[in-house]
Amino acid sequence: MTRQHDAIDAVLARHGYRPHALLQVLREAQEAEGWVPRDGLAQIAQSLGLTLAEVEGVSGFYRFLHRRPVGRYRVLFSDNVTDHMLGAPALMAQLCSLLGVKPGELSRNGLVSVAPTSCTGLCDQGPAALVNHRHVLTRLDAGRVAQMAELIRAQVPVPQWPAAWFEVQDNVRRADVLLGTPFVPGSALQAALALGADGVMEELKRSALRGRGGAGYVAGAKWTACRETPADVRYVVCNADEGEPGTFKDRVLLTSHADLVFEGMTAAALAVGASQGLVYLRGEYGYLLEPLRALLQRRREAGLLGAAVCGREGFGFDIDIHVGAGAYVCGEESSLLESLEGRRAYPRHRPPFPAESGYLGRPTVVNNVETFAAVGHILLRGGAWWADIGTPKSTGTKIHSVSGDCERPGLYEYPYGTRVAQILQDCGARNTQAVQVGGAAGVCLAAPEFNRRLAYEDVPTTGAFMVFDRSRDMFEVARNFAHFFEHESCGFCTPCRVGTALVARRMDKLAAGHGSRADLDVLLELDGLMHVATHCGLGATACNPLRDTIAKFRPAYEKRLKSLQFEPGFDLDAELSVARRMTGRDDAAAHLETPP
Ligand SMILES: Cc1cc2nc3c(=O)[nH]c(=O)nc-3n(C[C@H](O)[C@H](O)[C@H](O)COP(=O)(O)O)c2cc1C
Ligand code: SF4
Fold first, then answer.
1. Which residues form the pocket of ligand 1, taking CB atoms under 6 Å from any ligand atom?
2. pTM (2 d.p.)
3. Would you state the pLDDT for residue 596?
4. Backbone phi, psi, residue 366, to 5°
């Protein structure tokens, strides 16, 4: 007989016992204890009409869901390369040592666990960490970590820790249309209603706006496909998963410009005939959930959402927020839809594309946060005005998340077509060796390329701009990204699941000084294979940083090669250590000869 958990029952009731809410149910169910025991999973399965295997499958997929105790304090240090550069690994080691816990394990007294996690989207104010998946810590240093250890030992509740630790700044360094124009809630919506659905589509097409989430698909074409697909219901989904390492612009838009984003979503609903909107908020930004919900409520009270938006009969639209649970692949739009439907976030086969068959099989517009924000201003000032900014194939402005080796990390908004050198100058970067544009899956540019323009005509970008000065080891940068992709591969297809692991192992082998030129050849071979054989963009782009850094910073690799010839993929002498221990020998003769 399964033990009934009252708290879980309350969560299930709140979600109307809908199986599609499984991820939200699991996330909320673990809030009280930090994890969900097996009988809790069984209770959820029974109540939602799912099998225990289905529920366990989902809870095992997402890193922020736990089936074993993780302690009253779960501290996750951001593992992004920029946090590394700011000293995150040493701070994590310090906390582990002060609390007597190993990384990734629960302390013996069951109080605390400490582990690394993928980029938390706070690269401009790191080193950063998450506590209990709900609280973000910024600008950590040795003093704060020492104090944190004391607070944990004394079991002080996290909300009572020093408020300054939780301060998250917008750091807007250069504002243009999106970040710098005051916006009156309701104004874009009034403009949209005056234009009507066809008029909104006209302006959008005239603007030639392209999506800001990565693929750069023309928004007008996507919305047209959605509105022209016959359906009883349509949806608008805002992709706020922002997991690309080095990207944090969507966090700021949702912190300080959320009205604009919601208005873009509502205008999309008017244009395509949708009645429900969903924001997929990455788990790392869970601290934004309450303020965003409060804002939605204010918009309902102001008549900007609800059964008759702005009093317009026949135009009902509302927005709900779903929170992710620590899986980068959920940023891929079809994985995101799977996740919204309460399943493991395996990318779907496409076609059909979400605009034709998306959330619950209905036509769905999926756009990035910044794309919806741009829509708001296009409605206010017209598509032609927007198309006049930027370049012919990349209209409007773009927000860049700048981090790494520079004096002023933060957000910089420029018209498309701005040169890399301009941003480097504005952010106070000196002796720059390389810039990683577009995140781990993007492009690594070396100094001779700093005159290039950020635009679809030259270097496309999702908006991440990570700066590395000449003191940085570009091999280690690429190795960090290799581990990120290995960690984040969803495991659905073999070329990516195995390929990312093989790449990470080879990079570790090189780092340990056991590599040969043959390893570089194998890495490039894996890049070629994964580019064509993986199921989604994650696997296809996973080797981008590796390929770029081998081509542009080859000495960083070659200095690590032990031999130019073949080297075994493992350290044979180290492997024989068990045999040596068993025979009680550790003399020179018990070791393999070290090659000259
Ligand atoms: C592995 C992977 C991760 C992605 N992550 C994001 C993301 O965090 N945010 C986002 O808007 N798009 C992301 N995308 C792109 C989405 O699949 C999709 O193209 C985008 O949400 C569409 O919106 P847009 O047209 O406004 O750019 C990702 C794609 C891949 C392959
Ligand atoms: S490429 Fe990687 S992330 Fe994409 S489906 Fe395959 S295993 Fe999953």
1. 211-215, 217, 239, 241-244, 329, 331-333, 366-368, 371, 536-538
2. 0.94
3. 41
4. -115, 120
